[in-house]
């Protein structure tokens, strides 16, 4: 399974955000690429379940 990384960032406007980085394996080449998403801290678990 691909590695998942979560980094918590500063609060902006009362909402704290986290940067979620996922390693996704390409079906075509077998190489890994990284996808980064900025999500509110309360939605991190929902984002990782996808």
Please tell me about this protein's structure.
The protein starts with a strand and ends with a helix. It has a domain at 16-47. The chain is elongated. 12% of the residues lie in helices and 58% in strands. The longest helix has 6 residues, at 44-49. Strand 2 and strand 3 (32-40) form a beta hairpin. Strands 1-2-3 form a 3-stranded antiparallel β-sheet. With 50 residues, it is mainly β.
Strand content: over 45%
Cα distance spanning the termini: 13 Å
Mean pLDDT: 81
Q: Which strand order do you get reading across the main beta sheet?
A: 1-2-3
Q: N-to-C SSE series?
A: EEEH
Rg on CA atoms, Å? 13 Å
Describe the global form.
Answer: elongated
InterPro entries: DUF4295
Protein name: DUF4295 domain-containing protein
Pfam families: DUF4295
Salient structural properties:
single chain; 50 residues; mainly beta; 3-stranded antiparallel beta sheet; elongated
Quick summary:
With 50 residues, this protein is mostly beta strands.
Compile the SSE list and pairings.
Elements: E1 4-12, E2 15-25, E3 32-40, H1 44-49
Antiparallel strand pairs: 1-2, 2-3
């Amino acid at each position: 399974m691909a590695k998942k990384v979560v980094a918590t960032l500063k609060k902006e406007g009362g909402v704290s955000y986290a940067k979620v980085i996922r390693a996704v394996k390409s079906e075509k080449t077998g190489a890994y690429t990284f996808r980064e998403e900025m999500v509110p801290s309360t939605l991190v678990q929902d984002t990782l379940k996808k």
